[in-house]
Write a structure and sequence with these properties.
It is built from 12 helices and 10 strands. The protein has a 5-stranded antiparallel sheet. It has a 3-stranded antiparallel sheet with strand order 6-8-9, with helices on one face. A two-stranded antiparallel ribbon has the order 7-10. The protein is 43% helix and 13% strand. The chain is of the alpha+beta class and 351 residues long. It has helices at residues 2-5, 51-66, 114-130, 149-162, 172-180, 182-185, 187-193, 234-245, 263-276, 282-308, 321-338, 340-348; strands at 14-19, 27-33, 37-43, 88-89, 95-100, 105-106, 200-202, 211-214, 220-223, 230-232. Bound molecules: adenosine-5'-diphosphate, 2-acetamido-2-deoxy-1-O-phosphono-alpha-D-glucopyranose (GN1) and magnesium ion (MG). Residues 23-25, 47, 205, 207, 210, 225, 227-228, 240, 251, 299 line the site of 2-acetamido-2-deoxy-1-O-phosphono-alpha-D-glucopyranose. 2-acetamido-2-deoxy-1-O-phosphono-alpha-D-glucopyranose binds next to loops.
């Protein structure tokens, strides 16, 4: 690791480098020098097939954010590589980068109060607004068709048919659940294609642990994990955040009776996110809650697809981890369906 780190213009002498954080995609390390802390990442080649293009997105997005934020802690800072640019390619063919560590922050796995979740809404909503003038066509699609739920269904069915690990028979119930909702799952994609919903620069991975709160004020400080900043829909960012943060249980909870959608949290996020976004259209406001359901469905399908394919995409810590994750998403969708009229009522407040 030392030889990787030495290729970046870091400040001070290296003291330690340890695995850090709980992301499912990249390999992340906390680097400590006698001067300051950094985050070193090996960007996942399994997830991203054009990492130079991805890094170009990140460089330009962080530059755009720098022009709009006075506080340097409120956006990510890449550390230059000594040979130029902001990444290096190792002998093993792996892409590495370093960010300055944003000090004195909280990275929560679950909101400790509605106010924490409200703040994450402020953070992601502000992020979207600050990028509303960003030249959208210049962004590389770092994962093509990332939130194309119709295509996610196609990939799911392909994995089912191939059944390369002999796991399909054991997940019939889960499979049926997802297939029953295939038509509805494609709604947002179709509305985007028909022009009913505007394409915006979105984050696309708005889990609570992708926004840092200031440790003293607990206010939204810095949106991180910019690898999937791409053209998308407001409903993706709204929905994915709700899926993760309004759940009463962890994404991989085994006791499914603990998994419900908390409507107080749901409203808290909406209160933070919606007013911060740059003016949402009537059609967007009318479909944000559909985003919550569809993003939950989509993540469930993605987890189950990865389980069927032998766990090749997400990091797992136990053999059935992806299946457990898929099952929590099913429970959440079921609970959203049960509470749908209450959710629609909440959404009336923002129209
Ligand atoms: P992944 O794509 O694998 O989720 P992230 O970029 O989200 O990777 O990083 C993983 C974790 O590392 C985050 O959840 C957060 O805890 C921490 N992290 C990442 N970047 C920073 C940073 N600049 N300052 C502080 N913590 C960070
Ligand atoms: C991944 O990278 P991370 O852990 O923040 C995934 C998201 C999923 C999420 C589920 C690039 O997010 O799309 O919603 O796991 N990111 C990518 O926890 O696939
Ligand atoms: Mg992350």
């Amino acid at each position: 690791m030392e030889s990787i780190i030495s290729q970046f213009a870091i400040d001070g002498n290296l003291i330690s480098c340890e695995p850090y954080g709980s992301g499912h995609i990249n390999r992340t390390y906390l680097v400590v020098t006698d001067r300051r802390n950094y985050v070193l990442q090996c960007v996942s080649g399994a997830a991203f097939h054009n990492i130079p293009g991805l890094m170009d997105n990140v460089v330009r997005v962080t530059k755009a954010l720098a022009l709009q934020n006075e506080d340097p802690r409120s956006y990510l800072h890449l550390v230059p590589a000594r040979t130029g640019g902001y990444w290096i390619l190792s002998d093993k063919g792996e892409y590495w980068r370093i960010y300055e560590f944003v000090e004195h922050t909280l990275c929560l796995q679950t909101p400790e109060s509605p106010s924490d979740f409200y703040e994450s809404g402020v953070g992601f909503g502000r992020f979207q607004r600050q990028l509303s003038d960003f030249p959208i066509d210049t962004l590389v699609e770092t994962i093509p068709r990332f939130h194309d739920t119709i295509d996610r269904y196609r990939l799911f069915k392909e994995a089912l048919a191939a059944d390369c690990c002999g796991r399909a028979a054991a997940v019939k119930k889960e499979t049926e659940f997802f297939l029953d909702r295939e038509e509805e799952g494609g709604t947002l994609v179709r509305m985007r294609e028909s022009g009913e919903l505007p394409t915006r620069v979105t984050h696309n991975d708005t889990k609570l642990n992708n926004v840092l709160l200031d440790a003293d004020t607990r206010k939204a400080l810095c949106v991180i994990d910019l690898d999937t900043v791409m053209p998308g829909l407001a409903a993706y960012d709204y929905g994915d955040a709700i899926r993760f943060g309004a759940s009463t249980a962890a994404e991989d909870e085994k006791d499914l009776d603990k998994v419900t959608v908390d409507l107080t949290m749901y409203k808290a996020f909406s209160d933070g996110f919606i007013p911060e976004c740059s003016s949402l259209t009537e059609a967007e406001l009318a479909t944000l809650h559909l985003g919550a359901k569809i993003m939950t469905l989509e993540n469930g399908i993605r987890f189950l697809t990865d389980y069927l394919k032998g766990d090749v995409y997400y990091s797992i810590a136990r053999p059935e981890h992806n299946l457990d994750r898929a099952r929590t998403q099913i429970r959440l969708v079921q609970d959203m369906e049960k509470k749908w009229s209450a959710i629609e009522k909440i959404m009336q407040d923002y129209r």
